[in-house]
Amino acid sequence: MKRRLLLAGAVLSLVSRPGAAGPRGGVDVLVIGAGIAGLAAAVSAREAGAGRVLVLEKGPMIGGHAAYADGSICAVYPKLQKKAGIEDSPALMARQLWEWGGRQGDLRLIETLARGSGSAIDWLQSMGVRFMPRVYVSYPGSYPRAITSHPDRGGFEYIWALNRRARALGVEVLLNARASALTSSGGRVTGVQVERSGRTETVAARSVVIATGGFSANKAMVRRFAPQGFDPDAGSSANPGGRHFDGADGDGIRMAQEAGAALSGMSEVELITRHGGRLLDYAGGDIYVNAEGRRFVNENAPHREQARAILAQPGQVIWVITDSKSLKGPVLQHKLAIGEVRQAASVEEMARAMKVPRRSLEETLSRYNGFVERGRDLDFGKTVFTQKIDTPPFYFGRETLEAHYTIGGIRINPQAAVLRANGTAIPGLWAAGETTGGVHGTSRQGGAAFTDCLVFGRIAGREAARAARRTP
């Protein structure tokens, strides 16, 4: 992970090639944030006819959290699904996402996401992204509609493709440029105050898109909204050791709220296992056990349910176990090298290394493998299985919870326009990606974050470009 962080940073800070001088004059569309939602919005704005498009990125490189993500994207994509005998539809996807989020998400936004998911894949492919011919149930998820271009660096490849397209279209990117406030006149957003090189300047814009990500790096905000028992000092999944730049501090949410925007779903902070024993980006190939060697949760339950179960374990000690048959990707060698994952030739050897009762672990694995044969988990209701866990070597490692994704944020409509509390849109302002709320309800399916960023990033850019053409 550390090596991948450094590589991504080195490459993405170079390929953006921002101008040394600040912007002169106004712009048609100004995008705040150079993650996947921001770059999608910028490219979409130019494709929709916007003249001058400027992206502000407060960090030293583009990409945001997407640059380090595995890359699962949930989509209704018959070109791959039908080859695997999978029937799907936007209506089915929308219903499942809505159910997964406790029926608390805005169904209009969810339906928009589902309808736009397949074309988002085609859009990335038009930029040179090549997806693997594999469809799987994302971790966690409910249906086989996840695809990726690479098992370990898909997010980096999406950012690379979007950045290349943005450069070809003449999108301007300004790094180390922090947007501190929105400017407005007569109730319409007219630009952004930018802090750069010790100076503050105002950049006028006909349309502004906020795509600054969530607030998982803001410990005060995480402490306010995360479940009781979680320690925000544990760090975020994008920056577990606190040694790297992480711009997800909620500043876009703050700026929008100051401009009169309403917020939605702020009470949900997604906690996940990532930087320990978990190796798989799909469901059904691993199990979680506690200090007694016993399962304690459906490993494919929504993150919210998993987090509560983990927080309830004595000492929050959990282990993730898989075997030689699972599809692990390049992350395996890295985790083995740094000791986050170990391997064992037998269950007895694994139990000894984990310091859990051997008999308990043997009984747990035997019982679980019986559930796999039946296709039904009698203990925790798991329904997605890809394999038994019975073939050495076994791979295992301790896991801890980290703040990964913040589900709440700026309230938007299906056109990605930012809304006031009374439901009216704030003229000149759009938002997309993790900075928004209302899309996922109380829990997000794995792979749906990229779909959210791509679909609503494209919509925000297109709508912002159309509005810019009508604005003096």
UniProtKB/TrEMBL annotation:
Q: Where is the FAD-dependent oxidoreductase 2 FAD-binding domain?
A: 28-448
Signal peptide (from-to) = 1-21
Entry-linked InterPro entries: FAD-dep_OxRdtase_2_FAD-bd, FAD-oxidoreductase_2, FAD/NAD-bd_sf, Flavocytochrome_c, Succ_DH/fumarate_Rdtase_cat_sf
Cofactor entry: FAD
The UniProt keywords, alphabetically, are: FAD, Flavoprotein, Oxidoreductase, Signal
Recorded family membership: Belongs to the FAD-dependent oxidoreductase 2 family. FRD/SDH subfamily.
Give the matching NCBIfam families.
flavo_cyto_c
Name of the protein described by the UniProt record: Flavocytochrome c
Q: Which organism is it from?
A: Mesosutterella faecium
